[in-house]
Amino acid sequence: MTNSVHEHGWTAVPRSLDTLVASRKDPKPSKPVKIEDIATPDSPLVQAVMEYAQARLPSEAFNHSMRVFYYGQAITSQHFADWHYSAETYLLTALLHDIGTTAANQESTQLSFEFQGGIISLDLLKSLKAELSQAEAVAETIIRHQDIGDTGNVTTLTAVTHFATILDNAGLNGELVHEDTIKSVTAKYPRNAWTGCFASVVRRERELKPWSNTTRIEGFAEMVEANKLMEPYDAKL
Predict the structure, then answer these.
(1) Maximum Cα–Cα distance for the chain, whole Å?
(2) Distinct helix (H) and strand (E) counts, the chain
(3) What gap in Å lies between CA 7 and CA 3, rounded to an integer?
(4) Count of alpha carbons within 13 Å of 45, Cβ hemisphere only?
(5) Chain-centre distance of CA 57, in angstroms?
(6) In angstroms, rounded to a whole number, what is the distance separating the alpha carbons of residues 63 and 185?
(7) pLDDT interval class at 1 (50, 70, 90)
(8) Contacts of 102 (CB under 8 A, 6+ apart)
């Protein structure tokens, strides 16, 4: 159990991002990281999930997923180096975290898109013979990847996903990633008006499912649209 806990990021950490930022033992300014210096897993499992995600996600959402991976790895390596999770498990999470937002998946269920995405991802990874602990870690994180708040705990895998998704979507905690890192990541995986795309996804979720988990984040679409950190990279199509 201990090995799978470390391998797949099951260690509990505070849910509060402010608490996590304040808890750093030796806080230092972020340093620039080039995307090519961040190792990208390339196992058969990753390849299969990469093909699955590319075939189903719009290009804007796929690029967002890849940015989430690279930003998360940059954040962890510089600010939370004692966190344990495998790069493979995190990449699988990043690739699949928004799979529930595709038109087909969002409209085929009454479930909130994160819950639908978690179930889809769990079934997919089990069908691909992923280790159960890994498949469940990915599903847990996808289900909770918008569960940002001040109380309780999440897994380290969920925490890094929180940091990376909210950075890319809303520009929060921008001090955790150097500007040159953002330039390097967006050069390979451009935003292509992602701000407007994701704001539309949020509004569609709220319209289709007025009970959905997304409704707990007040003014979410407006928060996304006010993303000043990423505005210079958010070229309009």
Answers:
(1) 48
(2) 12, 2
(3) 6
(4) 20
(5) 14
(6) 10
(7) very low
(8) 56, 57, 58, 61
Mean pLDDT, residues 21-45: 95
Residue 84: Cβ within 10 Å count:
14
Question: What mean pLDDT is predicted for residues 196-208?
Answer: 96
d(C-alpha 103, C-alpha 105), whole Å:
6
Instruction: Report yes or no: 179 and 131 within 8 Å, Cβ to Cβ.
Output: no
Alpha-carbon span 7 to 143, nearest angstrom: 19
Q: CA–CA separation, 237 vs 70, rounded Å? A: 23
Tokens 């950190």 belong to 229
Query: Taking the CB of residue 110, how many other CB atoms lie within 10 A of it?
Result: 10
Please spell the DSSP secondary structure of the chain, one letter per residue. Answer: -HHHHHHTT--EEES-HHHHHHT-SS--------GGGS-----HHHHHHHHHHHHHS-HHHHHHHHHHHHHHHHHHHHH-TT----HHHHHHHHHHTTGGGSHHHHHS-SS-HHHHHHHHHHHHHHHTT--HHHHHHHHHHHHTTT---SSSEEEHHHHHHHHHHHHHHH-TTGGGS-HHHHHHHHHHS--SSHHHHHHHHHHHHHHH-TTSGGGGSTTHHHHHHT-TTTGGG----
* Each residue's pLDDT tens digit, 136-163: 999 999 999 999 999 999 999 999 999 9
26 has pLDDT over 90: no
CA distances from 173 to 167, 177, 185, 226 (A): 6, 8, 17, 14
Name beta bridge partners: 154.
13
